[in-house]
Structure prediction request, 160 residues.
Amino acid sequence: MSVAEGRILLEAGAPLTGVTYTGTFPQTNYEVRYEAMRVSGGDFFASLTFPVGANFATFVLGGWGGDIIGVSSIDGWNASENETRNYFTFEDGKWYAIRVAVRPERIECWIGAERVVNVGIGGRQITMRPGDIELSAPLGIASYNTTGAVRRIEYRTVSR
Prediction:
């Protein structure tokens, strides 16, 4: 990992590379925004792990071969298996605006102006997929065997 020219470069790891914020952070009623770019590789390149109440989840960007997006995990199902799974074609070298909003009953995620996740979470089990990605909690951005870059990371609290 390196920082230069206003961006964090996440070199392809074996398997993960990431950055993690370990300070205090809201558990709900917040939004995280950042810009992400896949530099090279064919898997997730700037996936965000974030708090959801007392637990954590991950918005996967380009997992399982490069084009699956979604939230891991809901009711024990990862992003490739639950209703948040979607497909998105990412181009190497292109910046994408990412936004994740967490409220007590809902998680929403955007790529650019397109809302790609809108899932109710009331009464549901939100957990992380077991494995190295757990090192990204409480708030982190990671890549998997892929080089990614992130910049302009910010958050704000929001009302219900």
Q: What stands out?
A: Residues 75 and 124 are 6 Å apart (CA to CA). The radius of gyration is 14 Å.
